[in-house]
Amino acid sequence: MNIDGKAWRSIWVEKGGRSVGVIDQTKLPHSFETISIRSCNDAVRSIRQMVVRGAPLIGVTGAYGLMLALQKESSDSALKMAFDQLIETRPTAINLRWALKRVLDRVKPLPPSERSIAARQEADLIAEEDVAMCQSIGNHGLELLKVLAERRPKACQRKPLNLLTHCNAGWLATVDWGTALSPIYKANRSGLDVHVWVDETRPRNQGASLTAFELEREGIPHTLIVDNAGGHLMQHGDVDAVIVGSDRVTRRGDVCNKIGTYLKALAAQDNGVPFYVAMPYSTIDWSISDGLDEVPIERRSGLEVTQVYGLISQASREPLISSVQISPTSCESFNPAFDITPAKLVTSFITERGVTPATEEGLKRLYK
Question: How many CB atoms lie within 10 A of CB 302?
Fold first, then answer.
């Protein structure tokens, strides 16, 4: 996608495969910086510290992390150790396990001397597949948005199509294009008049820092709102559809996504606003059916709740970014990173294979 006129992906191979470059998302939007991941331990730190984040990108980063581990030591024990290290970094997003398992299944039957090359090939393939899936999600979503725009009352058709999104499900969360933002990028480039309500997405503010950054660089009209304003906008007819991404979807259609998604789905249902979930095949966990009981919800540091992180000063060449305390020092906090939106609240899934109802039957029709 576009950064100051240059096309970027969120992850790329460097030095003939001896390292992997990524955008440091903890510095955005105030500073655009890249770092090199040179080892499996680097990949683990990058995922844990959310230098890279977003379920599809975490999966691709994990795959390359396994490749880097095998370049150093390719025995069975080293393979298992690296696999275990990487899979423990983020427990909720299923894409990480899916990608690591693909690399593991590809390299395990091979002699150790051939494993690192095969791991590189499989990681590259996963990355390219992610781009293709996100492009396809965008194409199917674009057709859906066109229909939404055409079905509005004539008095509304002179206004932009108002879309609300939560967290960041753009190209920074994938290799390119994104999931929930991909249809919006396609719509904007096709000439469809769109406007995006951007949830700030507390506590890490990925909407305010990342989604707003992406949309600004793409020249897409958008407005940042506090998380609790979405229901108000829906009540006043200012939201035509909600589009979010997902970190895991059960075979029954329950959706695990960034904390606060469930509340948006409830507000959308109460106000008759379509609620769409854009997600690739790699996000489906066919092994579970009940999201509320079976999906492990990551609990993150309470400091993310009691402190905010942002720009302090731009007086020098290097922007000064720091955290500030917003609660009493002794205040306890609770910080679940995700919540579960039941399938009954989801209007449709937008996938790389098309649009389908959020049901087990609908998913199975697409993925026989």
Answer: 15
Q: Which of 130, 247, 254, 285 is catalytic?
A: 247
Instruction: Note whether residue 42 is domain-resident.
Output: yes
Which helix (DSSP H) or strand (DSSP E) does residue 19 occupy? Answer: strand 19-23
238 given a catalytic annotation: no
- Tell me how far apart the alpha carbons of residues 89 and 100 are, in angstroms, rounded to a whole number: 12
The pTM is what?
A: 0.95
* Cis amide prior to 203 (ω within 30 degrees): yes
CATH number at residue 320: 3.40.50.10470
Residues of the chain with pLDDT under 50: none
Structural domain of residue 123, as residue ranges? 2-128
For the stretch 145-194, pLDDT in tens is 999 999 988 877 789 999 999 999 999 999 999 999 999 999 999 999 99
Tell me if 360 is assigned to some domain: yes
Determine, yes or no, domain membership for 120: yes
Residue 197 is encoded by which pair of tokens? 């309500």
Instruction: Identify the DSSP state of 336.
Output: B
Task: Spell 52-87 as b/e; 16+ CB within 10 A means b.
Answer: bbbbbbbbbbbbbbbbbbbbeebeeebbeebbebbb
